[in-house]
Amino acid sequence: MRVVILHNDLRVYWKGRIKYLHDFLQVHHITLYSIELFGKGSPYAFDPHDSNNCLFPDNSYDELSKSEIETKLFEKLDEINPDVVIAGSIVFFSGALGVRWCRNNNKHFIMFDDGKPSFIKRNPFIQYIKDTLTKQADALWLPSADYDAEYKGVFDKPWFFHGYNTIDNDLFKINAEKEFNHNTITCVARLVDIKNFDNLLKAWKVVESANATYRLSIIGSGPLHDHLQKLKTDLGLKRVDFTGIVSNQDIPMYLFKSDAFVLASFAESWGLVVNEAMAAGLPVLLSKTIHAATALLKDGENGYTFDPYNVDGMAQKILQFINLDIPAKKAMSVKSLAIINTMNYENMGNELLTVLNKMALQKAKKATFLGSVFMGVWKGGYNTSGWNK
Fold it and tell me: Percentage helix, strand, coil, to 5, in the chain?
């Protein structure tokens, strides 16, 4: 069997997943290929693209016509002739073109998506078109089981499967006993509006008034740096540190030397930094609008959740953690590790293999009439507008 993973870009977390899946599937006589569409324009531009598998290494999507993208991609897929194509949501070039190639060639198509439709406001007719296109897929690969309800009436079981939103958990494990004497809570995030740093700093003002020891460490850079430094001064905060960019290899030790992780975002389609923090053994303090929180946070067991718009409520949850005794904090750490150990590369590989084996015994789905009409019109896009907002 030949399988292609296709997306607009396959950087950062996808690199580790693809390497693992290539070796894992090869043992089961399945050859995995990857196709990255664009070498430029990625929100992850700091991470170099895979020059061996990138169709347009010198271009961003807006430098190309949709016909150019379609023609070159279809030529590459014709060359590989995969039995299964795995690609992102049909809102992207990868999903829209991938599903059309599969339907035209009687191949299986798997769509992965970590966005929850209920969190995205769309015109009802546009949502109907998206749902119709999604129905053309043979299977949906979702981050966790709580996503299934989002596709009720759009897609039928048993063709939901889960667990692709993984990281290399082992990279974040330090070979030492986790201690809770650092008096530090850490946040790793871009300094942008959607991460809700204004409210986090206002909540930390309440924390500082009630606790004289804990520090807030903020790792990351972004356009709000100067604004947040001024807000820190205006609020009179004494125990907030902006560390700037920290290299990937140093992040695990920064997390290990923290007592907990906090992320106050107004929205996260998943939030893989939560996986990283938990793999480092940290309790997590998370906004309830972070999708990873639904699957990975057990409130009161490995951390606490809060309303990102409620500054006092956020502060009280942070203080609730701070005021725990050390055995309780250690118990939360153990629980975080137990939960994240169920969302690892091995589980990802086994979930995918199960579906691929089922697909090998069944014919690919046929396109519906409306599906064919919509696939003929929609060729996908590449929307990164929320990256700096």
Answer: 45, 15, 40
